[in-house]
Amino acid sequence: MDITFGQIAGMVAAIAFLILVIYLCRVLVTLVKTLTEVNQTVNTLTQDANDSLNQVNDLLDKVNDLMEDVNGKVKTIDPLFTAVADLSESVSDLNAAGKGAAQKVASSTKTVGNFSKLSSIAAVGKKMFDMVKGRKAKKNKEEI
């Protein structure tokens, strides 16, 4: 049997094709395994994302409830702050009136005797209380 050059070339081509097919089969098997793992990973990530979104929704519901509660409490406390501010203003006015009265008493007592000192103090005290009472009445009229 004589083997010709064409037969040898055909045999080499057939062996090369067989090696190529075997290599491609191995690559395809590896690719299938990789795609299976990717599919499992995507499924796991999808489930985890859904769980996380459910937890975020629950958290947002709780935050909304908490904010409603805080807003209600702030509305309840707001008049208290207004009252404290008004009281602070009244105390400041009373302090200023007290200083003015004290200065008047101090200046009038320098030239007057003990008896007139006592009557001056009483007069200034009465004037100061009348002034505070008048301011409260005026403020009550403004609020109405």
TrEMBL record:
Pfam family, one: DUF948
Name of the protein: Chemotaxis protein
UniProt KW keywords: Membrane, Transmembrane, Transmembrane helix
SUPFAM superfamilies xref list: Methyl-accepting chemotaxis protein (MCP) signaling domain
InterPro entries: UPF0478
Transmembrane annotation, as ranges: 6-25
